[in-house]
Amino acid sequence: MATFGNNRNGPVAMDEHESCQRCGERGSARNRSKYSKRTSSPGGTMSISITAATKVTGAVPSKAVSYAVEDIERDLKATVSPSEQPGADIVLVEGPHNPETWEVRVSDGNLEIHAGDDFGFIYGLYAVSREVLGVKDFWFWNDQRFTPVPAIEVADDFALTSKPTAVKYKGFFINDEVLLEDWQVDNDKDKPWRLAFETVYRLGGNMVIPGSGQRGEPHLKLAQDMGFYINQHHACPLGARMFAAAYPGVQPKWPEEEPKFEALWREAIEAQKGKRTVWTLGFRGQGDQPFWNADPRYATDEARGKLLSEIIQRQYDLVQESDPGAQCCIYLYGEAMELYRAGVLTYPKQVAKIWADNGFGRMVSRRQENNNPRVPAMPTNDGDNGIYYHASFYDLQAANHTTDITNDPRLVAKELEDVIVNGGDDVWIVNASNVKPHVYFLNFIAAIWREGTIDFEKVAKQYIADYYGEDNVDAVFDLYEEYWKDAVQYGPNWDDHAGEQYFNHVPRMLITQWLRDNKASAEDLRWMHDGRNLKEQIEFYRGLIAPAVERYADLADKVELAAISAELRGEEDAAELIRDSIGVEVGIYEHCVAASVHVCDALLAGYEEDWQHAFYDAGLASDEFTAGDHAMRDREHGKWAGFWRNDCLTDIKQSAWVAEQLMGYLRCVGDGPHYFQWLRDFTYPEWEKDVYVIMNMENHPTDREIFEAMKAKWGK
């Protein structure tokens, strides 16, 4: 493994998911979603008991370790019922250990966790939670239920030992976190973040970016207190305040405002120096875009690369001046990748390169607007390398933000394994967004950062067994397999499968362009189809997505059948999780794809001046988008109340609203200016609708009332 810059006794990559040497009956109980009493290992070996009297004792925990202690105390209450039975303690034993390593063993009638640093104790505590108490890594996000027992028996020969991991620094970027930010647990808005960070540790991670840009500031202290290495958003190098926020009204230009930029950098360095920080160097424009978008003076790759190289060097010098030996990295993301490949971007050799996927799981540069060069972004085994990888992506085009990746997970896993082979093992920062919608993929991504390579099907089925139960493994696995197979492929590459944004942003863009100018092509959709006019683009889009309507409807039926089958076996928890996970995702696609087809039909009917059918299809589109929103909102039960409320990026409810605006326009053109004919056509009896003694005897109906009358007459 490459050494990451000047390590300063930084982490040795170790696996929080330990090797189990001798674990009594731990293996046989691994797949139980509800934990029962454990017994000693075969052969009569003695055991200790974990009971309500069990406490965490021994070495005084640091602030970071105390969070993990609180969690295991919570887990003890969830898995062990109150009783008078005495129990063994969980004892923290500090001693010589390599960084991040640990060992769990039974000794002197207690369960001991041996470690030499914060990370070792944290990982050891979560290992006990998982392997002894049965609390799974995604227990919170997958609603794992527990049946407390009076005692959990642990054999005297029980032992767990950490082992090396494939990646040194690894963790989540909680990005585009609009669902988490709007939600709370136990009336506490910080608790979702606390639980997200706990999940990173449970998966063996040690680093986070605690939110998007300035939005992450409220959560930075919690992440630092919990002991994580902190990395920074590529749009906010060094964790500095955004220039536009610090200097409202001042144009963020270089070199004119160099002193102001440097003041912000120094401020950020001073605030974080000496802490566990992996410093991000770089320079992007305000709003997470290339800086030259707002400064056309930098018109060539050479000029852009020269400026970016100078700024990176200056930032590096400032960091080393205040925090000698600190780890630094640059994100080869978007335009930075293109400049690097063009040979015009330079950087200090001690700086690690963070390569980025395109947002769809492929290690090539991302599409930006209509520009999609697909520059190879696989690490190159030279120096220190890492990756920025997306389990969630927001591109206002075709990505997945509220659903799982729609590409073949085997190919995603292979791409990540190739990253390891090509030396990208120093830093992995995974865009986990709001966590819950992406746990299926996050599970196996984390398995790769631990192991370096995986058997995808084995990992996936173990995950399903852990959370859905053994009886549902085949059914749920097949649902996820069909999920990516049913996805719409909009391009020639294996990673060109459409996420839910393709069925929300694209129809909104088509409607907007049709209302502005229905003859000219939508310039911002040339990446989708470079048609001669808008009508060609609409016809192309409709032809591509229409076959998926039936596929997703069939898959929705299969999801419900799997849930009902689980219920018939008395597995209500599994049925609920099926509907809450793959069921939500499929429901979003089922309704949003159907809605998008109706949008196309409405616009195409508009070209024919068939205003009534255009209006009707726009109404059907609005209804389907609303059903897509309900696919999320209807699964907000218990602690999940309000979780999906702030879907404001894909924003399915906005798609319904835009379709309703189209309805209003179409009715204005087709039924205005006096708005009586459609009332007569759809609410009057046949003998009366053409009798015009008085135009109408009733209040003019709303668009929705006319639409409902159309549905009654046309039978849809």
Automatic annotation (TrEMBL):
What are the GO BP annotations of this UniProt entry? carbohydrate metabolic process
Q: Which residues form the signal peptide?
A: none
UniProt keywords (A-Z) are: Hydrolase
Task: Indicate the segments annotated as coiled coil, or none if absent.
Answer: none
InterPro entries from the xrefs?
GH115 (IPR031924), GH115_sf (IPR042301), Hex-like_dom2 (IPR029018)
The yes or no answer to whether the keyword Hydrolase is present is yes
Q: Name one GO molecular function term.
A: hydrolase activity
Keyword Hydrolase assigned to the entry: answer is yes
Q: What is the protein name given in its UniProt record? A: Glycosyl hydrolase family 115
Which Pfam family, giving just one, matches this sequence?
Glyco_hydro_115
Q: Where is the composition biased (Basic and acidic residues)?
A: 14-28
Which Gene3D superfamilies does the record associate with it?
A: Chitobiase/beta-hexosaminidase domain 2-like, Glycosyl hydrolase family 115
Query: Where is the stretch described as Disordered?
Result: 1-46
